[in-house]
Amino acid sequence: MRILILGLSTRAIAESAVRGGYEVLTLDYFGDSDQKELVENYSLMRDFHLGFSAQALLEASRQLDFEAVVYISNLENHPDVVEELAQGCVLLGNTPRTLRQVRHWATLRSFCREAGVPFPVTFFSGEPLPGEGHWLRKPVRSGGGHGISFWQGKPLDKNHLIQEHIEGIPASAAFVADGQNCVLLGVTEQLIGREELGARGFTWCGNILPLELSPEEMDALLDALEDIALKLTRRFGLRGANGFDFVLARRGGDLNPYLVEVNPRYTASMELVERAYGVNVFDLHIRSLEGELPSFSLRESIHRPGFYGKGIVYAREDVVIPETAGWREKGRRDIPFPGERIGAGHPICTVLAQGESRDECWHRLLKEADTMRQEVEKGGES
Fold this sequence. Notes:
Blueprint: E1 3-6, H1 11-19, E2 24-28, H2 33-38, E3 40-43, H3 54-61, E4 68-71, H4 79-85, E5 90-91, H5 96-102, H6 105-115, E6 122-124, E7 135-139, E8 149-150, E9 160-164, E10 169-178, E11 182-192, E12 204-209, H7 215-236, E13 239-251, E14 254-263, H8 270-277, H9 281-289, H10 298-301, E15 307-314, E16 319-320, E17 332-333, E18 341-342, E19 347-355, H11 358-381
Parallel strand pairs: 1-2, 1-4, 2-3, 4-5
Antiparallel strand pairs: 6-9, 7-8, 7-9, 10-11, 10-13, 11-12, 12-15, 13-14, 15-19, 16-18, 17-19
Helix pairs in contact: 3-4, 4-5
């Protein structure tokens, strides 16, 4: 079966699919060089000369030959497009009906209240707005932390919401589900707005796996996350690979995970799950859609030594990419083409690192990012 994978950036999931022995082609925005060497890839930017949008992905997909489709970020925000994509082929992922429910903020808020899941206080357009406090203004169609800012007290439009800003550790959980049951695959710290990586504001710029906690705290957290994942799975009928973002906050002496949003598709942190635990997430995704959940135990794996990180390195100024031969061997991914011009504020590539401690892993990520920047700056001078 020939499977089309499409979304904003498909390189990581494509690597997983190829390792799993699946026949895939990919359609994304970037079409970076390492992905084009790996699989049959089509780029909105390079091959279709289109900007990124869900509609552009749909239009471009109509020119491709495939029998099944897997969608990733940010098509979960566009169930109507997913519905059109699925016409005449097999949809390997959550249904448009599920997307309409789990990505509907008012429905998610009600679910959390009824299920006893901690959730930041949230207001929508048309509701009485809060007074003092720390509040975030977020797009309704959220993704990657883009468009999030502190609320300045202005009225809301229908495309934004206001959410309580909870101080704590931004994190994410990954799991696979069959509609009734689920298996937790990983828990990661999210790297948000790290200036060291060139990111700003609330922009996502990577993950470190696992979250650094004491064994006792981790066991308690896994209990809570397994409970959240199971409740989400049964309420919304989640299937395949899924994730959710949360903020781990200490209130009343206890650590509590506050659910921030649900990502009902393959997530970026799953690349680290594969590196750390030796599983193939794409294969688990396909098998769980068929009702087969893995025997994998995160409780047994999470206390293994070692931390794994990925960092998205953003350009601080306009750059021209030099020769990139050997970049992949240096642990870099999403590699642009030599001579490509990348504007300030846009991603250059992904760097990978690991270390015995969380801090060692983080510092190695920064070293990899700095080394890459130096090569780019040197190449731009020649």
